[in-house]
Amino acid sequence: MNTANGTNSANSVNALWHNHAHMPTMPGREHRIVRGAGAYVYDDAGRELLDVPAGLWFANVGHGRAEIADAVHRQLSELATYPVFGDFCNPRAEELADRIAGLVPVEDAKVFFTSGGSEALEAAVKLVRRYWQLTGEPARQTVITREGGYHGLHGFGTSIVGVPAFREGFGALLPGALTVPAMDLAALEAAILAHGPDRIAAFLCEPVIAGGAGVVPPADGYLTGAQELCREHGIVFMLDEVVTGFGRAGSMFAAERYGLRPDIMLLAKGLTSGYLPLGAAVAGGRVAEAFWAPGSPHVFQHGLTYSGHASACAAALANLDILEREDLVGRVRSREGRLLEALLPLREHPLVADVRGGTGLMAAVALRGHDVAEEVAHAVVNEGMLMRVTGGDALQISPPFVIGDEDIDRIPVAISAALSRVSGRRSRAAAPSSRETPALSDTAP
Ligand SMILES: Cc1ncc(COP(=O)(O)O)c(C=O)c1O
After folding, report:
1. What Cα–Cα distance (Å) separates residue 163 from each residue in 1, 180, 438?
2. Are β-strands 200-205 and 142-146 bridged in parallel, bridged antiparallel, or unpaired?
C-alpha cells in the first residue's frame, strides 16, 4: 500500500521502477528533476544544472516552451485525441504527417505514428517483412544491424540490439537478426553474400551511432557505400534518425548531410523535443506502394491506440514551428566546431580515453572505464551541470540547441574540475561513497 507522500508503507521504498537501474541501491541515489527552462533544469535541492544530455537526447528546443504547452492545452481542451484506426483519424495527425512527409528525404513518404522510437522500429520491421511477403520474396526476413547499434528494446529491438548486455538473459529472442561490425563495408558485403541477399529484408543503421556505442560519427563513405550495397542487392535501407532527426546532427536529417535517401526512416525524440511521447516509421513509396497503390487489396495489420495522438501531434507541430522560426538547425551546425574544439583538450587527461564529435551537437568524452565515467558524471553536478553516461564509459554531450556559447565553453571546464576531483580522490584511495562507485553498475544506452 502506498502512503500519501508516495512511499510504500511496508518498506519506505518508492514504487517507481527506474529504467536500466539497480533498484536495491536506489534509495538515496535518486536525482529528482523538477523544472526546466531553456538549456537548464532544476533539481529538488534547488540547484540550477545545465542539461548537457538534453534529457535522453530529446530536449532540442529547450525546456519550458510556453508555446508548446499552449498548443497542447488548446488541443486537450478541444479533443485529447481520436484514434487513427480504420477510417477514423484526427486533423492534427493528418497535418503532422503531411508536414513530416514534406521534410524528410524519403521518396513519396507515408507516415505511421507510434508513441516512441522502439515502437517505430517494431512497426518498421513488421512493415518491411510484410512488404517482402506481398512482393513474392517471403524468405527475406533477416534484418542486418551493426555492433553498438541501438534501436529500442521492445521484442524485435531486443533481438537486434548491437549491445550484447541488452540481449542477454531473456531466453530465446526473435530469429532474423544479423549483426555486423559498425564501420566495415567489406564485412557488410561479406555478411550479405554469406547469408544470401534473397534472405535479407533490410539493413538498419543510425547515421551517427548514439547511445549504444557512445557517439560514433560515420567513417568516410561508409553510409553511402552501405546504401549502394542495399540497392545492389534489393535490400530495404532503413535509417534510424530517432536521435539525429530534426537537427541534432547539424542538418534537419542526417540523411541530407550524408547524401542518403532511405526507404524507411525512424523518428521520435526531437519530433516533439520530448514535450509529449511521439514517434514515427516513415515509409517511402517503394515499400508503402504495396499497401497504398490504387487497387491494392492489402492492409498493414498493425495498430496502436495512441498512433497519431492528437495532443502529441499538436506538440510536434508547435515544436517544428519553433525549430524553423528560430533556425535552430542552423544554430546547431554553426556550433558543432566550437563544441568539439572546446572538448578536444580533455584528451590530455590521463582518465580520458577519447573525445568524439564534430557532427552537430553530438559529442562524447570517453573515460577509462564505466566506474570512472559514473564518478565524473556524479562529480560534475557540483560544477552546475547534469551529465549522464552513455555507451558504457562515455559522458554524453548533446545539449539543447538553445545552449549559449559561454555554456558550451563551460562544459570542458566543468569536466576538468570533476576529473581533478575524481583523480585526486582515487590517488588518495579515499573510501568512496556507494553512489560514487556503485557496487552494481547501471548501464544504459
Ligand atoms: C537511435 C535510437 N533508436 C531508437 C530508440 C528507442 O526510442 P524510445 O526510447 O523512444 O523507444 C532510441 C532511444 O534512445 C535511440 O537512441
Report:
1. 37, 12, 21
2. parallel
pLDDT digits (tens, 9 = 90+) for 384-402: 999 999 999 999 999 999 9
Which ligand 1 atom minimizes the distance to the CA of 56?
14
- Closest CA to ligand 1's atom 13: 152
| Contacts of 172 by beta carbon, 8 Å cutoff, 6+ apart | none
Q: By alpha-carbon position, which residue is closest to atom 4 of ligand 1? A: 151
Neighbours of 32 (CB within 10 A): 8
Domains within the chain, CATH numbers bracketed: 23-51+327-427 (3.90.1150.10), 66-325 (3.40.640.10)
User: Which of 19, 60, 151, 265 for a ligand 1 pocket mutation test, highest count of atoms within 8 Å of Cβ?
Assistant: 151
What is the Å distance from ligand 1's center to 105 Cα?
A: 20
DSSP-assigned states of every residue in 380-432: GGGGTEE--EETTTEEEE---TT--HHHHHHHHHHHHHHHHHHHHHHHTTPPP
Q: CB under 8 Å to 371, separation ≥6 — which residues?
A: 437, 438, 441
Distance 249 CA to ligand 1 centre (A): 15
Write down the residue that cell numbers 513474392 correspond to.
136
pLDDT tens readout for residues 107-141: 999 999 999 999 999 999 999 999 999 999 999 99
